[in-house]
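ARCHIVE CARD
CATEGORY: sequence design from structure
SOURCE FIELD: tokenized fold
FIELD CONTENT:
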């Protein structure tokens, strides 16, 4: 566990995942890595998008007053657009290429807001 600059380890309750949720996500990621050895290449991005959605779902089970609106909207978008990989691969690829910029913009917005 990480330590703060004063040498004190933050309380476990400060996290956004329970131990069970973390293990479920680890199990999903590791089993996805194994199965991706046998699947079409683009399934890897689908599994990563799905993992991000699962992580957001776990996070939303906790009190996140400043992040919740954005995360709820992002999860809905991830869950809606990940299925595009099955019938509109070009739109899916466009989405996968665009979503990191959207997340980065939200991170920058949050950082700017915190500095204000």
């Amino acid at each position: 566990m990480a330590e703060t600059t004063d040498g004190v380890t933050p309380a476990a309750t400060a996290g956004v995942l329970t131990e069970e949720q973390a293990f479920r996500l680890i199990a999903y990621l590791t089993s996805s890595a194994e199965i991706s050895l046998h699947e079409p290449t683009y399934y890897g991005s689908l599994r990563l998008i799905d993992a991000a959605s699962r992580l957001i779902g776990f996070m939303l089970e906790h009190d996140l007053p400043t992040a919740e609106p954005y995360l709820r909207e992002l999860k809905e978008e991830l869950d809606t657009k990940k299925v595009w990989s099955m019938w509109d691969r070009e739109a899916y690829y466009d989405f996968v290429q665009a979503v990191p910029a959207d997340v980065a913009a939200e991170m920058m917005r949050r950082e700017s807001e915190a500095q204000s």
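CARD ANNOTATION: Residues 15-115 form one domain. The chain is about 70% helix and 0% strand.
SHELF: design records, drawer C
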